From TrEMBL:
Its main location: cytoplasm. The active site is at residue 315. It holds the Pfam family EPSP_synthase. The lineage of its organism: Bacteria, Pseudomonadati, Pseudomonadota, Gammaproteobacteria, Cellvibrionales. PROSITE patterns: EPSP_SYNTHASE_1 (PS00104), EPSP_SYNTHASE_2 (PS00885). This is 3-phosphoshikimate 1-carboxyvinyltransferase. NCBIfam families: aroA. It comes from Pseudohalioglobus lutimaris.
């Protein structure tokens, strides 16, 4: 599937984008391992979260899908999973695989985890290392890549782990393994990362402590089922925050968006660039802060992105690079080497596409320098990365000529229905089969 963007247009209206991907993965995992029935609403029916759902079904958990976004998980308790007869296929999802590694390390049975070509090229050493220290046995392919074979029946020991990189996936993996470990498991992070795992564990009645930057829990407890209302995904809303900011005449209301402070880097960065973004109706839903976000067109200027905003905006940089391309002056990003190990190398993939559109940029090991300018048209390669596809789609609003975005199938991993919603809001997008 490819997107064709006709130049111009603006973004107007009101929309609730699909559910948060991080919270959707976790709702299935913790719901499955809880005692009792967990009802999830607002679940993201994207391929990544559905792969996690299928993995737990394959391990004997009854999970019903009702009307849009309503999912009912019949918890089996921390020790109630059954061995799957086939490898568990996590598709495109780094989150699914890395969090599952932690949980599977604590089971009594062996399992194999696999995924698509993108996932099988991503580094898993970052979770294998701490899990091995805890006593797990995990065999990987060359370079610590999937497929992974995780041996069951290992006695795990609580450890303290200093995360070498700011990664919520690694933090969550270690904490989830800690549920099965003897004694206390604790982590420190080089910078705060999304804390949905900690919040949801607490919501399921499992004590998680945070003291002087050390996050810890004691193994051997149990999870009690709790209902979960998944907020709209700020990472999906981000495409429209940028789209409305760059297209004159835009005025958009994004409703019920998750605004957990570990996720709002995109709002902070856009505001530093001059964006007109206001939050209203701030409330808490199931332990997660939620708000309605209004965004109106405003001229943007280039900035040096503060490094402390990198973790809370980690998935939003492809979209933010489009904002930088449309801004007046130079934008500099450093300290973001993690972007190189996402679904694609997002620094390289974005630099390539920006160059195609005539935007000057310099690639750094850990970031990029982008000179704002005029966007031409051209053919963009997504490297099978959903966020690259949607970022170049919104670039059409400011392009001089049509943009064709090739290989857009992966958009369904995080944002099913993106093209329809974007078109309703004013993006001049059409979809063709490859
Ligand atoms: O924990 C999570 O749900 C996620 C953590 C982040 O990955 P890292 O932990 O690799 O930074 C993010 O990029 C990913 O989309 C979702
Ligand atoms: C990096 C992402 O997801 P994951 O690591 O779960 O594949 C993302 O959605 O941008």
């Amino acid at each position: 599937m490819r997107f064709t963007l006709s130049p111009g247009g603006n973004i107007r209206g009101q929309v609730r984008v699909p559910g948060d991907k991080s919270i959707s993965h976790r709702s299935i995992m913790l719901g499955a391992l809880a005692e009792g029935v967990t009802r999830v609403s607002g679940f993201l029916e994207g391929e990544d979260a559905l792969a996690t759902l299928s993995a737990f079904r394959a391990m004997g958990v009854e999970i019903e899908r009702h009307s849009a976004g309503e999912v009912v998980v019949q918890g089996v308790g921390l020790h109630g999973l059954e061995a799957s007869s086939a490898a568990l296929d996590l598709g495109n999802a780094g989150t699914g695989m890395r969090l599952l590694c932690g949980l599977m390390a604590g089971q009594s049975f062996d399992c194999e985890l696999t995924g698509d070509a993108s996932l099988c090229s991503r580094p898993m050493g970052r979770v294998i290392d701490p899990l091995t220290l805890m006593g797990a046995k995990i065999d990987a392919q060359a370079g610590g890549r999937p497929p992974l074979k995780i041996s069951g029946g290992r006695a795990l020991q609580g450890i303290h782990y200093d995360l070498p990189m700011a990664s919520a996936q690694v933090k969550s993996c270690v904490l989830l393994a800690g549920l099965y470990a003897d004694g206390r498991t604790s982590v420190t992070e080089p910078a705060p990362t999304r804390d949905h795992t900690e919040r949801m564990l607490r919501g399921f009645g499992y004590p998680v402590e945070r003291k002087n930057g050390v996050i810890s829990l004691e193994g051997g407890g149990c999870l009690e089922a709790a209902d979960i209302d998944v907020p709209a995904d700020i990472s999906s809303a981000a495409f429209f925050l940028v789209a409305a900011s760059i297209a004159p005449g835009s005025d958009l209301l994004l409703t019920h968006v998750g605004v957990n402070p570990t996720r709002t880097g995109v709002i902070n960065i856009l505001r530093l660039m001059g964006a007109d973004i206001t939050l209203s109706g701030q409330r808490e839903v199931g332990g997660e802060p939620v708000a309605d976000i209004r965004v109106r067109y405003a001229p943007l200027r280039g900035i040096e992105i503060p490094e402390d905003q990198v973790p809370p905006a980690i998935d939003e940089f492809p979209a933010l690079f489009i904002a930088a391309a449309c801004a007046e002056g130079r934008t500099v990003l450093r300290g973001a080497e993690e972007l190189r190990v996402k679904e694609s190398d997002r620094i390289a993939a974005m630099a390539e596409g920006l160059t195609t559109l005539g935007i000057e940029n310099d690639v750094l090991d850990d970031g990029i320098i982008i000179e704002g300018g005029t966007l031409a048209g051209g053919e963009i390669h997504t490297h099978m990365d959903h966020r690259i596809a949607m970022s170049f789609a919104i670039a059409g609003l400011r392009a001089q000529e049509p943009i064709v975005v090739l290989d857009c199938d992966h958009v369904a991993t995080s944002f099913p229905g993106f093209d329809v919603l974007a078109s309703e809001l004013g993006l001049r997008i059409s979809v063709q089969a490859d």
